Amino acid sequence: MRSLRASRTLAGAAALGLAVCLAASAGATPMVATAAVPVVALPALTSSRALAGMLVSPLAANVPSKGGATLAPQGTGSLTGRIIVVDPGHNGIYRKAVNRKLVAAGNGKKKACNSSGTATNAGFAEHKFNWKVAVELVAQLRARGATVVLTRPNDSGTGPCVNERAAIGNRAKADLVVSIHADGSYAAGARGFHLIISKTMVGGSTTEARSKALAVDLRSRIAKQTGMPRSTYIGKGTALSPRSDIAGLNLSKIPAVMLEAGNMRNKADVKLLTSASWRLKLAHALADGVVAALKG
Ligand SMILES: [Zn+2]
Predict the structure, then answer these.
(1) Cα–Cα distances in Å, from 120 out to 124, 130, 212, 219, 227?
(2) Ligand 1 centre from 254 Cα, in Å?
(3) Suppose 174 and one of 83, 127, 225, 248 were both cysteines; which one would form an S-S bond, judging by CB atoms 3.0 to 4.6 Å apart?
């Protein structure tokens, strides 16, 4: 089935002038571009809908995807020559078998390939929120000159397992990884954002320190630029959560942080998380943090 699906994807992507590399891992069939082929300039995207539409592939979603979608810069600026991984957490669809599959999570731990993510009480899914923020962030990073690798190419299929998400950044020899999530806590009064960092990364202590510095920097930018308060329920007021069970961070050779942008079960947070203009502010804060982290 792979070749049929691959050729359909190839035809669709080629028609759009897209350089999408969905299969950079060993043994998989590259669908459009291999790592050795430079990405090509894409037409300007004016809205998240445009990018989402362009990246939707006809791939069925019964198996986790591999590789990521590599998107060329759309401008020059402070990120020219940089490669940034943007990881919209979770997948567009839920498959029990996929989610139950256990993969290495680093630190000797195993973890489910992916989890289904949370949602607001009204049913706005976390994966959709993550995707919407990611699309805005991708646009800003590309406008500033970065090549961006999206860990999943759309919000309609089954993206990569959590260990593969780390591998995507490692293979791309990216400069930074930003993983986007939102939380779902039912604790009374639980609201606000926090940033997760790994206590033990494959990249070692320098990578851990740079990840923490990025998280600390993003913490002030997010509070200042978006108005979302620091978490009231994680991190004891620091909005930082060092963990050892997050595969995407543990297995990364490059600095990586995971944002929990707010609590999807909290009314005040939901007001922000469901606002397109708020998500744009968040994307700005994240892009500014990436620029600052890579300066000099
Ligand atoms: Zn999540």
Answers:
(1) 5, 13, 29, 23, 19
(2) 21
(3) 83
In the reported structure, the alpha carbon of residue 36 is separated from the centroid of ligand 1 by a whole-number distance in angstroms of: 32
59-294 under CATH 3.40.630.40, yes or no = yes
* Interval 29-71: pLDDT, tens: 233 333 333 343 333 333 444 444 444 443 445 678 887 899 9
Tens-place pLDDT, residues 263-292? 999 999 999 999 999 999 999 999 999 999
For 285, residues 6+ apart whose C-beta sits below 8 A from its C-beta are 218, 221, 222, 224, 225, 226
C-alpha span between 132 and 235 (Å, rounded): 26
Residue 260 annotated to the active site: yes
The amino acid sitting at 292 is A
Question: In whole angstroms, what is the distance from residue 162 CA to residue 59 CA?
Answer: 19
